[in-house]
């Protein structure tokens, strides 16, 4: 009888020692898994990017993404367009950016929503938005009648480390 009592007491002592450690280990693993799940499912924010060179553009009511870009030091509102192969600016904007439009060769052709128009290739010294700065970015100058605003296309976007649309916002990351 005494032996049984000793074995029972020993078993209780062992359980008293092991259960708290098991419970603690279980809770730590559960909290880690919950944190990982939250990180995986939470919308990404600019703060999550180590470089700190990112910007988030909210969609306008029609679902388009506009931002204020600085081109060669001058502010210009532009529409981000993943369907455009390059940045497209009109001749008036080009003049504001310090480009001598009169010396450009309008020998290229650009496909626009309104058809094919003559265009000139240029390189923009500097394109900035938020903390993102790119130098020597390809662009096309179109006649004023062919383009009313600036389109920011793939010549800019392809030089970023990433860009994506998530929850109604466009994330641009350098």
TrEMBL record:
<dbReference type="Pfam" id="PF13975">
    <property type="entry name" value="gag-asp_proteas"/>
</dbReference>
<keyword id="KW-0378">Hydrolase</keyword>
<dbReference type="GO" id="GO:0006508">
    <property type="term" value="P:proteolysis"/>
</dbReference>
<dbReference type="InterPro" id="IPR001969">
    <property type="entry name" value="Aspartic_peptidase_AS"/>
</dbReference>
<dbReference type="InterPro" id="IPR011969">
    <property type="entry name" value="Clan_AA_Asp_peptidase_C"/>
</dbReference>
<dbReference type="InterPro" id="IPR021109">
    <property type="entry name" value="Peptidase_aspartic_dom_sf"/>
</dbReference>
<protein>
    <submittedName>
        <fullName>TIGR02281 family clan AA aspartic protease</fullName>
        <ecNumber>3.4.23.-</ecNumber>
    </submittedName>
</protein>
<dbReference type="InterPro" id="IPR034122">
    <property type="entry name" value="Retropepsin-like_bacterial"/>
</dbReference>
<keyword id="KW-0645">Protease</keyword>
<dbReference type="GO" id="GO:0004190">
    <property type="term" value="F:aspartic-type endopeptidase activity"/>
</dbReference>
């Amino acid at each position: 009888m005494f032996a049984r009592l000793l074995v029972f007491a020993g078993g209780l002592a062992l359980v008293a020692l092991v259960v708290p450690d098991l419970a603690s280990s279980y809770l730590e693993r559960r909290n880690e898994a919950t944190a990982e799940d939250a990180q995986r499912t939470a919308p990404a924010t600019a703060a999550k990017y180590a470089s700190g060179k990112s910007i988030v553009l909210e969609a306008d009511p029609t679902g388009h993404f506009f931002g204020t870009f600085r081109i060669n030091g001058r502010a210009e509102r532009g529409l981000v367009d993943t369907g455009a192969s390059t940045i497209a600016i009109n001749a008036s904007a080009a003049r504001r950016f310090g480009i001598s439009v009169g010396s450009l060769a309008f020998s290229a052709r650009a496909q626009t929503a309104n058809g094919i128009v003559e265009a000139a290739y240029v390189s923009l010294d500097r394109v900035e938005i938020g903390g993102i700065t790119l130098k020597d970015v390809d662009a096309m100058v179109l006649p004023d009648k062919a383009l009313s605003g600036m389109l920011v296309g793939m010549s800019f976007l392809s030089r970023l480390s990433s860009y994506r649309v998530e929850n109604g916002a466009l994330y641009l990351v350098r």
